[in-house]
Predict the structure.
Amino acid sequence: MSATSTCDPVREEEFLARLDEGHRVEPYEWMPDTYRTLNVKFIEMHANSEIMGALPEREWIARAPTLKRKRSLAAKVQDEVGHAHLIYRVAESLGRPRRAMYEDLIAGKGRFHNVFHYPTYTWGDVACIGFLVDGAAIVTQRALLDTSYAPYARVMKRVVAEESLHYRHGEDIMLALASGTDEQFEMLQEAVNRWWEPIMHFFGTAVPAEQDPMIRWGVKGRSNEASRQEWLNTYVPKMWDMGIDTPDPKLAYDPETGWWDYTEPDWDRLAQIVKGEPTEATASRLYWRQLLHRHHAWLHDIILGPDPAAAA
Amino acid sequence: MTAVDLALPDLSTPRRQVLLAIADDALISGHRASHWTGVAPSLEEDLAFSTIAQAGINHADLWYQLVLAGTVDDVSAGVDALGLGREPDAYRHAIVCERPPRDFAYTLARHWVLDRFEAVRLASLADSTDRDVAALSVKLRHEHRYHLEHAQLWFDRLVRGGDEPAERLRDGLAQVLPEALGLFEPVEAEDQAVADGLLPIGHTQLRERWLESAAPLLEQAGFADLVPAADAAVPDAAALGRRGCHTDDFVVDVWPEMTRLYREHPGARW
Amino acid sequence: MATFEVFGRRKWDAPMEHVGILHAPDAEAALVLARETHFRHDEGVEYAVCPSEHFHTQDPTLLQRQVDISYRLQSGYSGFRDKREAARQAADARGRGDLRERPVPRRHGGEA
Ligand SMILES: [Fe+2]
Ligand SMILES: [Fe+2]
Ligand SMILES: [Fe+2]
């Protein structure tokens, strides 16, 4: 690659300057290696998370308490798979084949968001995943409408539109539990207690925007802390309004500063979850997924068409 | 919250037995199909198959509504009482519907067989003297076109896909086809339902029509030896689902998981 | 001579849309000719062509839904004002109504 070298400091400076002016990058344009690598890493993790997010929720399609919830949950999980489908395509446009990403994921080599490493115990978890975890995803995905990689921003438009259905789906389940029997209420409160820390973790440490390479390279448009604050702004009042308490005694909104104060989550635990040994929930979900995958090796070329990578 | 007083109508009438059989087939096969959501062999197929699962659940709901037809005030609660609140022996689906998904070849074989059955059943029900039944059948027939096309798509590709895929489809069909005969067992008091015109033709005749539609396709695909004989008996293991006899695949596997949450909270709203 | 289907993107964040067809001997020529056939009034920022023989259309009746699928749409969820009110009353009955009194941002976002 001589004529189109991806390592060219002068062009790289120009590229960054154009990003600062709000330029959107198309796949056919020249881009520095760093830009490509950071985007692939981020987008692949996003797509993986849609799949890994579908797995805990799918466990409840079989157990849903009414036929209406059964079909809406199935439809909601279907959308998440659809998001994975759309987002993998974006990573593909940067040169990473979908089959490779997918196979890495189920082999346990792919990265995905911390919140999808946890087990589910009750329908309260379905409410929390559907409203609070999806809510966290909505907040970060909205911020991605400003991402500099044009295909990603275009796909986010569609995903964010579908997420507003998920928002309603989630709030509807929350409200039903909050206004239901004492057992239902407890089921919800306990689940909120369980999900609190994972969600606080989800947004990442409060690394200053200037020091976040994902921001410098125009992948993300907003700092971790700004996203976390936005989530708190929207979802904490919703929970309090329905009589659900938040498990952090320090959590409080300061009307003067417009800022939420909260107990710093245990960041070592986050590192443990995403970088350590897989949790039991993840290990078993991936084990079954992997088994199903291997069991159907005879089918993959039929269902996807021949693998170009294998032919090469 | 007090438990809702929900008096379900008498389910033993011929009309309700017929409708329950249709609804339960849809619910249980939809429930089994939903297994693939999130884990199907490709993302595109995941999306397609999830819709097939949702249709099962959705269509069951519509048929349950006809079972209830004006007998309860709270229709959703009534639908759930039917779909999730009955004892296992009150379900009227055929046993083939309750079998686990096994692998995708078995799943496709069953999907193909069930949808060819559903097509002939809906076509006949479109002539029902019961106007609600006829109207719903026409609607669902339209919806079912997608199921048929989808099933045929993979059926053909597995047949042409080389030795292993064709063999696996053959194995799947060899398991499904004999058990599928259980779909055509008459429901209780079926003669009455036929005499009333609710069922334009009985299940025995439906079986002939289904064979007429499925046999040529099976023969063309090289599965002539698997076509059930016109007088073949339903294997014992797959018999009497229409009378509420079910296997452990339902009683131990599907039913407890599907209904537990509902049953644990009587009268709760979700 | 072959027929090509032409697609264009109006704005950087818009989807590729079908804008028409043109006749050309091959794809290379179609790409050159598409510019003045379909985009001479500044209609877009990007375009692509594909041979019409590779453009497969589905019978549109397959998209007509006869059964209600509103559970897949936002319109399938309604009555939130009442549902929120019911939850507030339940919270009061459980002695948890005071949670609502805590300071919160005056207008919080979200889809509500
Ligand atoms: Fe999503
Ligand atoms: Fe979502
Ligand atoms: Fe079907």
Summary: The mean pLDDT of chain B is 96. Chain B touches chain A through 48 residues (CB under 8 Å). Chain B has one domain: 14-232+245-264.
